[in-house]
Amino acid sequence: MSAYIIVNVDTTHPKEYERYKEMAQETVARYGGRYIVRGGTMQVLEGSWNPTRIVVLEFPSYERAVEWWHSTEYGPAKALRQRLSTTDMILVDGYLPTSS
Protein backbone atom coordinates (compact mmCIF):
# COMPACT_ATOMS: atom_id res chain seq x y z
CA MET A 1 0.00 0.00 0.00
CA SER A 2 1.33 3.45 -0.89
CA ALA A 3 2.27 5.99 1.76
CA TYR A 4 2.34 9.75 1.47
CA ILE A 5 4.53 12.47 2.89
CA ILE A 6 2.65 15.76 3.10
CA VAL A 7 4.74 18.88 3.56
CA ASN A 8 4.12 22.57 4.15
CA VAL A 9 7.35 24.51 3.72
CA ASP A 10 8.12 28.18 4.12
CA THR A 11 11.48 29.56 3.05
CA THR A 12 12.89 33.06 3.06
CA HIS A 13 15.75 31.87 0.82
CA PRO A 14 14.01 30.84 -2.43
CA LYS A 15 17.14 30.95 -4.61
CA GLU A 16 19.14 28.74 -2.24
CA TYR A 17 16.11 26.48 -1.79
CA GLU A 18 16.31 25.55 -5.50
CA ARG A 19 19.43 23.53 -4.67
CA TYR A 20 17.50 21.60 -2.02
CA LYS A 21 14.79 20.74 -4.54
CA GLU A 22 17.38 19.31 -6.95
CA MET A 23 19.08 17.29 -4.21
CA ALA A 24 15.83 15.96 -2.74
CA GLN A 25 14.37 14.93 -6.10
CA GLU A 26 17.28 12.58 -6.76
CA THR A 27 16.90 10.86 -3.39
CA VAL A 28 13.10 10.56 -3.62
CA ALA A 29 13.43 8.72 -6.94
CA ARG A 30 16.14 6.44 -5.51
CA TYR A 31 13.67 5.22 -2.88
CA GLY A 32 10.82 4.65 -5.34
CA GLY A 33 9.03 7.88 -4.50
CA ARG A 34 7.45 10.43 -6.76
CA TYR A 35 6.07 13.93 -6.44
CA ILE A 36 2.27 14.19 -6.62
CA VAL A 37 2.13 17.91 -5.73
CA ARG A 38 5.05 20.32 -5.76
CA GLY A 39 3.87 23.85 -5.13
CA GLY A 40 1.09 25.30 -7.23
CA THR A 41 -2.02 27.36 -6.69
CA MET A 42 -3.85 26.67 -3.42
CA GLN A 43 -7.02 27.73 -1.72
CA VAL A 44 -8.00 27.04 1.89
CA LEU A 45 -11.54 25.67 1.80
CA GLU A 46 -12.10 25.25 5.54
CA GLY A 47 -10.35 26.03 8.79
CA SER A 48 -7.61 28.43 9.74
CA TRP A 49 -4.66 26.71 8.07
CA ASN A 50 -2.41 29.14 6.21
CA PRO A 51 -0.09 26.96 4.10
CA THR A 52 2.77 28.51 2.15
CA ARG A 53 4.04 25.77 -0.19
CA ILE A 54 2.54 22.28 -0.26
CA VAL A 55 4.43 19.21 -1.44
CA VAL A 56 3.00 15.68 -1.53
CA LEU A 57 5.25 12.68 -2.10
CA GLU A 58 4.06 9.15 -2.79
CA PHE A 59 6.20 6.15 -1.82
CA PRO A 60 5.46 2.49 -2.55
CA SER A 61 5.12 1.76 1.19
CA TYR A 62 5.25 3.37 4.61
CA GLU A 63 8.49 1.51 5.32
CA ARG A 64 10.14 2.78 2.13
CA ALA A 65 9.22 6.38 3.02
CA VAL A 66 10.78 5.95 6.47
CA GLU A 67 13.92 4.47 4.86
CA TRP A 68 14.16 7.55 2.60
CA TRP A 69 13.66 9.95 5.52
CA HIS A 70 16.50 8.34 7.52
CA SER A 71 18.79 7.65 4.54
CA THR A 72 22.34 8.92 4.25
CA GLU A 73 21.49 9.99 0.69
CA TYR A 74 18.76 12.38 1.88
CA GLY A 75 20.70 13.61 4.93
CA PRO A 76 22.57 16.50 3.23
CA ALA A 77 19.41 17.73 1.47
CA LYS A 78 17.43 17.48 4.73
CA ALA A 79 20.06 19.53 6.58
CA LEU A 80 19.97 22.19 3.86
CA ARG A 81 16.16 22.38 3.94
CA GLN A 82 16.14 22.65 7.71
CA ARG A 83 18.64 25.52 7.52
CA LEU A 84 16.72 27.41 4.83
CA SER A 85 13.10 26.92 5.86
CA THR A 86 10.44 26.14 8.40
CA THR A 87 8.66 22.90 7.62
CA ASP A 88 5.66 20.91 8.81
CA MET A 89 5.75 17.32 7.53
CA ILE A 90 3.73 14.18 8.14
CA LEU A 91 3.86 10.61 6.86
CA VAL A 92 0.57 8.79 6.40
CA ASP A 93 -0.34 5.33 5.13
CA GLY A 94 -2.57 5.23 2.09
CA TYR A 95 -5.97 3.67 2.47
CA LEU A 96 -7.83 1.37 0.13
CA PRO A 97 -11.36 0.57 1.25
CA THR A 98 -12.37 -3.02 0.92
CA SER A 99 -15.49 -3.92 -1.00
CA SER A 100 -18.45 -4.99 1.11
SSE blueprint and pairings:
Blueprint: E1 3-11, H1 14-30, E2 34-38, E3 54-59, H2 62-70, H3 75-84, E4 85-93
Antiparallel strand pairs: 1-3, 1-4, 2-3
General description of the model:
With 100 residues, the protein is of the alpha+beta class. The chain has a single domain, classed as Alpha-Beta Plaits, CATH 3.30.70. Helices cover 36% and strands 29% of the residues. It has 3 helices and 4 strands, in the order βαββααβ. Strands 2-3-1-4 form a 4-stranded antiparallel beta sheet. Helix 1 (14-30) packs antiparallel against helix 3 (75-84). The radius of gyration is 14 Å and the shape is flat. The chain starts with a strand and ends in a 7-residue tail after the last strand. The relative contact order is 0.34. The model has no long low-confidence stretch (mean pLDDT 94).
What keywords describe this structure?
single chain, 100 residues, alpha+beta, 4-stranded antiparallel sheet, 3 helices
What's the main sheet like? 4 strands, antiparallel
Strand content range:
25-35%
By CATH, the architecture is named 2-Layer Sandwich
Overall geometry comes to: flat
CATH topology: Alpha-Beta Plaits
Short description:
The chain is α+β, with helices and mostly antiparallel strands.
